[in-house]
Amino acid sequence: MRIFDLSQPLNQEVSFWPYYPPFEVKYIKRKSEHGVNAQYIQTSNHMGTHLDAPRHFVTAGRTIDEIPVEWLCGPGAIVDLRDQMGDLGVYTPKMIEERVEIRQGDLLILHTGWHKHAQFGAEPDEERYIHMHPGAHPDMVPWLLDKKIHIWGVDCVSTDHPMNLPIGRFLGKGMHGQCDRVRKRAEELFGGPAGVATLFPDSAYQLTHNALFPHDCMHIENLGGSIDAPELQNTRCIIGTFPWKFRGGEAAFCRTVAWLGEWPKNP
Asked: pTM (2 decimals)?
C-alpha cells in the first residue's frame, strides 16, 4: 500500500481568497525565554487545502463537526483533466466519465493541473491561480447529485468558475479592473458577451456552493501535493480528507490523502 498527500502547504505566504483576511502567524513563546516554542495564528478558513461545509452558504446547514466520518474516507477516483484545462477552462461530467469509472457515493478528486500556479507550486503565479482557474460546467450540479457524491475536490482556489465568482463579476471594478480582464478573456473563449451570458447567467452565481450545499454535497479546494503522481492519474483508490473536529465550523483546513494498493493485514 502507498499513501499520497494531496494537500498544499499553508503559511503566511499563501494567497488568500479576495476580500477575506490573510493567514497570520507569530511566536508568542520562544525556547530561549520560556523553555518552549509556541505560535499564535489568526486566519479565515478559506485558504490552503480546506473543506467547505454546507454551513458556509446555508444558514442552518451542516457544520464541519456534523459531517459523518464515513463521508470523509472511502472509495473514490482521481481524474486527470490537465489535457483539456487552460485559462478559464470548464470541466464537465462527460470529460470525467470518459476517463475513469465514477460510482455512487464516491469521493471525487479533479486534477486540473492548476495547483502548479499556487504559492508553492512548480510555476507559482498568484494572479493566474486566482483569476484564471478552471471551474465547473453547470451540468456538474445535477450529475454530482445523481451520483450521490458528498465530497469532491479540485486543485484550484474554487470549484466555481471565475465567471460565477466575484473574480469575474466585480473584483477590482472601477479600480484595478481584474474582473474586466477576466471577462474579456472569457468572451474570447466562449463566444462573446452572449456566450458568456448563456454559460454563466446571473442565476449561476457561486453555483456549486449555492446549488449543492443544501444537498450535503460539499467540496475541498486548493488540493495539490502529490496529485501529479503518475500512479494516481485516472484511477480508483481510497481517498480521505481530515478536517479538525470544528464544532460549528463553516469550513476547516484539512489534510487530504489517497491510498493505492491493498491494506496490510498485519500493519
From this structure: 0.95
